[in-house]
Amino acid sequence: MKIFVSKINESWVVDRFREDWYKHNTEITTTKIKSADIVWIISPWLWKKIPIKHLKNKKVVCSIYHIDFDKFSTDDEREFTERDKYVDVYHVISKKSKEQLLQLTQKKIISIPFWVDSNLWFEKSNKSEIKKSYGFNEKDFLVGSYQRDTEGHDLKSPKLIKGPDIFFDIISKMYSENENIKVVLAGKRRNYLIAKFNKAKIPYSYFEMVDSEALNDLYNILDLYIVTSRLEGGPQAILECAISKTPILSTDVGVASEILNKNSIFKINQFEKAKVDIEYAYKNSLNYIIPIGMKKYNNMFKEVYES
């Protein structure tokens, strides 16, 4: 069995998953599509870059992360239907995405969260020193968000499925009750929140595109990470927080209900009722560390190959 993984090159987290896969699965993976038995379309929009002859003659697994039905146009439906002709099995990274996908296809759908690398994401003991090294004071209560919040077409409009407006409202209330609150932002396209925080004079620090080592530091200095998305496939930040024992609260999106204690999941406008449960999240994240998490994918591909 040989697997070819489509290439995305968008500096997105999926690029890292592709790199991880090739690194840890050399015996069953090929960079030459002609030699492959299975084509893994790791990002659905890449299917048009693959010659039709390969889609017809090989087993095809396609990953779908989430579907925004509010923006799902006739053209989107037409493209999905065309691609669906060639897909043997769909892969999703959360049970919620599976529920969405069942509305569009009768093909088999396998739900497996992406793996998490415990060599990259882990708890550090010297949190106070790290905090100081990034310019924060001991008294600062640091709240993090490392997901983009702004649409790409104008770098002003909020990406509402990520819930940056919800995040801002939560932070505003927290800051009104505790002036030691400081926001830690990372990642691309944070323009919406930066503009909102500047206008409201809420203190924040922005670390745009840091490497994994620095990002792990940024997880470790947090007193709280908040996911405020309205719609998600992952987000991978949930697993990264869980394995690094970063306190996290989240809306009920993506893998949240599969990793976090139900008490750590909040409804919009009921944030104050949520409670952090670090150990619960950490215990569940251990099911997805490398190599355990990748073994689930190996089993999926074996099933596809033998079908």
Write the topology of this structure.
Layout: E1 3-5, H1 13-24, E2 38-41, H2 52-57, E3 59-64, H3 74-84, E4 89-92, H4 95-101, E5 108-111, H5 127-133, E6 141-145, H6 164-177, E7 181-186, H7 191-200, E8 204-207, H8 212-220, E9 224-227, H9 236-243, E10 248-250, H10 256-259, H11 278-285, H12 292-306
Parallel strand pairs: 1-2, 2-3, 3-4, 4-5, 6-7, 6-9, 7-8, 9-10
Helix pairs in contact: 6-7, 9-11
Throw out a few tags for this protein.
single chain; 307 residues; alpha/beta; Rossmann fold; 2 domains; five-stranded parallel β-sheet; 12 helices
CATH topology of the largest domain: Rossmann fold
CATH architecture of the largest domain: 3-Layer(aba) Sandwich
Helix coverage percent of residues?
25-40%
Into how many domains do the coordinates divide? 2
Mean pLDDT rating: 94
Radius of gyration: 20 Å
Number of separate strands: 10
Helix-strand pattern = EHEHEHEHEHEHEHEHEHEHHH
C-alpha termini separation = 12 Å
| Uncertain residue segments | none
Could you name the CATH homologous superfamily of the largest domain? Answer: Glycogen Phosphorylase B
Tell me the number of helical segments per DSSP (H or I, 4 or more residues long): 12
**Largest sheet, order of strands side by side?**
1-2-3-4-5
